[in-house]
Amino acid sequence: MRVADNYALLKAKHPYFASKIGFIGESGQVQVVDSKSGDSTLVVERSGTAEYLHSKYNPLHEAGKFMEQHLQDAHNHVLFYGVGLGYHIDIFARHNPTIPFSIYEPDVDVFRAFLSHQDMKRWSMLRHIYVELDVSECSSYVQDFVNQTSGQATIITLPSYERVYAEAFRRFSETMQHFLQETRKIFQLRHAFEKKWIINALDNFPFTIHAEHICNKKQLFEGKPVIIVAAGPSLVEEIENLKYIKAQKSAYIFAVGSAITSLLHHGIIPDGACTYDPHFHNVNVFKKVIDEEITCIPLIYGSTVGAGTLKDYPGPLVSLFTDKDPIVGMLLKKENEKTFEQLEDAPSIAIIALQLFSEMHCNPIVLVGQNLGYRNNSYYASGLENTRVLVQSDLDASFQVEDVSGNMIQTDWSFNTMRLEMEFHLTKYTDRTVINTTQGGAKIQGTQFMDLSDVMKVYLNDEVVDSNWYVNEGLGYDLNYLREQSKFLEEKRELFVKQIDEVIGIFNDMNRSVNQKNAKKAFKLTQKFDTAFESFQKNEFYKTILKPMNMLQLEWLTKQFDTIKYESDMLVKTKKVVEKVGKFVYDIRNDLQMITPLYMNMQKAVQIALNQEKPMNN
């Protein structure tokens, strides 16, 4: 009956594996035999040799000794690599009833044997099951697990698997290391940016409310050729071509990132520049423009860009919105229409520009200087100050990808991430002509490679550029909507101040009940907290401004709820709520205090716009 019960559980909670594994008996290569102690053990035939996955003498005692060293290791989530007959997992589940765990088994025949020897219904904290039916599944399984846990997990490997399944274990370990590194880098990026995005959006709003949105220019750009110029080392080879295109006005030339400096160094004034980097030092990209007070280059900026960029930029400003700015989504919409389009945030401004000009229906879209790899030991084009030079550690961490000519070039994680992201977006714009002219650059799926000189002959034969494309012809914002939404947001802010004070007051009472060992009072306060915290989380001011600033911590907190939910001791449970949720709430209050001056300045800018006063440039 145990096998039938386990199989029914699989069908209910893990139907994919239930359908794949099938309900058949043990394989001839995997045998369940009795040990000296009388408990079952597993024997696997490998190349004519009988290998034991558990002790042939006393597998239960062996599992107990093995788990002694791991019972205190786990804190978030445990992944067991190697199930065997599940003795060690059962010990863990009994000693850690509130810690979630998952299992990964590289041998489907072992898993079938396991189904007849453990009662999985007792394992209430079992979350994910991965059983390799083919070696190709390893990558997708590991990626799924890392995504589910954000890489916050303890991995416990049954020792015999390192020997018996050496190749599978090596593949698993290398794959896990790869995805953990990727997740760690993504985590670091999100950690660095999630507060900056909101802070910048608030700080930039006095400019954004007076800057025309780029989508208002869609009709002007539709069907026109656009060149996106990046600062890769191949840019220098196209300077003369770009000068000719500029003189003939046969395509719009937009600089992305630090390419603006290189173009100016070579005497080319682009038709515009694009920027979005949320770092405060992003303004340094435009040092030459600012120092020389060049006022004729319009700046298309993401509304979450480092705020100093807009305060110092001498030229016209044109806005675009990304999905990292929930504030413009809350306050601004077109007259008689829906809210403005928001582009997906991306690892580079070139990808933002690609999305933008694709949405504007430009044709063709031409990439210049988009190397996405190293060339002649250089990252960037000439004309840039403090150009980074490759060092040995860069080369050690690099790897090869195919270039536009079918050769191999060195690249790194950052460049490769940009390339893959660009390829992803290109799948959405298959009706656009996107041409990569970057000599020696990485091959980008979804583009066609052509020499820029050939692009000029085939596509750039007419004068198309309107040099005054950026002139503000009216913001097109729905002022009634802005008035209503800003008032609504302020009402919710005032309410939220009261709500967060109420939650913190309940926390203090909960903490006292724990110190007094009053479980009955702790229970009532926990119920009161649940209601207050739920209201707190539904508040639109919190959801628009404070929640996006703390998404990583909120995701971590959500993963802790299992350990809180299944805690039977009321005082321990209350203490966990105060410790884990309390930190989150106090951090929210600190963020509220920090952003309040910026928020008030934003509301002031709204009133100026509603009163149709002149924009403030301070």
UniProtKB/TrEMBL annotation:
Family matches, as InterPro entries: MptE-like
6-hydroxymethylpterin diphosphokinase MptE-like domain location: 200-376
Pfam families, alphabetized: MptE-like
- The name under which this protein is listed is DUF115 domain-containing protein
This protein's species is: Paenibacillus plantarum
